[in-house]
Amino acid sequence: MTTMYGLADFTTPAYDEAQICLAIEAAISRFEPRLAQARIVSASQSPDGLTLQVRIEAVLQLPTRPEPTWEPAGDPVSLQATLSLHPQHLEVQGAH
């Protein structure tokens, strides 16, 4: 699995929905410090297998001052995202 810009290359059919969801969770955990406890709560794949829609739930964290550390704000967020596998592209539609 080759990682570029936080996500592995899922353009081969060797990956299943569960592996992709775990990889998205890991990428958020590693590269997005503003989102804590991020998890995929639902996922649905298109019939052709080229698009995966996911709902991500997390807790928003804010930077503290004067140290650049992250502290939970306690605000839950829910994001809808679509991962297109050919070409590989992740688009986040909005937050609630």
Number of domains: 1
Helix content: 10-25%
- Low-pLDDT stretches are none
Count of individual beta strands: 6
Oligomer: single chain
Calculate the mean pLDDT score and round it.
78
> What's the SSE pattern?
EEHEEEE
Question: What value does the Rg take, in angstroms?
Answer: 14 Å
Main attributes of the structure:
4-stranded antiparallel sheet, alpha+beta, 96 residues, 16% helix, two-stranded antiparallel ribbon
Describe it.
Helices cover 16% and strands 54% of the residues. The protein has 96 residues and is of the alpha+beta class. The strands form 2 sheets. It has a 4-stranded antiparallel sheet with strand order 3-4-5-6, covered by helices on one side. The chain has a two-stranded antiparallel ribbon with strand order 1-2. The longest helix has 15 residues, at 17-31. It is elongated. The mean pLDDT is 78.
Summarize this, please?
This protein is of the alpha+beta class and 96 residues long. The protein has 1 helix and 6 strands; from the N terminus they run ββαββββ.
Please write out the topology.
Elements (H helix, E strand, L loop, with lengths): L2 E2 L2 E2 L8 H15 L3 E11 L5 E13 L6 E16 L2 E8 L1
Antiparallel strand pairs: 1-2, 3-4, 4-5, 5-6
